[in-house]
């Protein structure tokens, strides 16, 4: 089973500043990595798949990078509506997926 | 675009079973892979398992292998998840979601297990 580890647990960022979230896999997952945003009381929303491809309708301020075991989600200029919990998920091994524990992004 | 509609909330007792449904529409059922994801109160997302319609195969996360059964009814395009031997730790919201990277999510089903 691939274990996904996210850091930091909480990230406080001022509006307009850059937010950088990290995700590490216990073994290589190639570029089979997705990022999600979740707000309270809502289902998660897909932001990024294939490590760096934005999903439909996702603003360009969200970008993903990395491959193998180390991945990054960057929000280039944080807006108030970006606060929430962000999860990474690997889908490298067919039908045996796993999520990271999440990073909470809030406003400084 | 696929649409996923889940069944309503469940309140049940410890030791019993619960069966949650996820009705699909908008896309060929045979092309779908439907995941189940659990979220305990105040906690993160936990992948439970998946049904892959094209090969009629289910797979489970190791910790759910013994107590969870995922099944499907192709005539109604519905996927089910049953949990047996419920414990208080099974309380949470259960989501269905489509695809290996999950681009469409259901509305979530709250399951409360009381002891």
Describe the biggest sheet of chain B?
7 strands, mixed
Largest sheet of chain A: 7 strands, mixed
What percent of residues of chain B adopt helix (DSSP H or I)? under 10%
Please provide the count of β strands of chain B. 11
Give the CA-based shape of chain A: globular
Instruction: Catalogue the unreliable spans of chain A.
Output: none
* Alpha-beta content class of chain A: mainly beta
Sum up the overall morphology of chain B in one term.
Answer: globular
Distance between the termini of chain B: 40 Å
Helical fraction of chain A equals under 10%
Measured distance between first and last alpha carbons of chain A: 36 Å
**What structural class should be given to the helix and strand makeup of chain B?**
mainly beta
Give me the number of helical elements of chain A.
Answer: 0
What is the residue-mean pLDDT of chain A, rounded to a whole number? Answer: 97
H/E series of chain A, N to C?
Answer: EEEEEEEEEEE
Strand content of chain B: over 45%
- Determine the oligomeric state from the structure: heterodimer
* Most extensive interface, chain pair and sizes: A-B, 25 and 23 residues
The radius of gyration computed from the alpha-carbon positions of chain B, rounded to a whole number of angstroms, is: 13 Å
SSE string of chain B: EEEEEEEEEEE
